[in-house]
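Chain A, query sequence.
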Amino acid sequence: MIAKEQLTAFVERIERLEEDKKTIQDDVKEVYSEAKGTGFDTKALRQVVRLRKQDREEREEQEAILDLYMHTLGMIPDE
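Chain A, predicted structure.
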């Protein structure tokens, strides 16, 4: 009996959180639409948001690897 009550409580909490997550996702989508409507590039904006989530060292490491790959492929001329 206790397990059933616990299971029900967990399921109901998860369902509420999933609903909250959907609402937040819709809000984020709306903000991106607003930004696009004022002339911002949403692809670049998403990249900035993603990069801001990283710590500085991780971001610098990824940028260095990307720079190395781009140089190797001839996408950036040697200085």
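The radius of gyration is 21 Å. Helices lie at 2-37, 42-53, 56-72.
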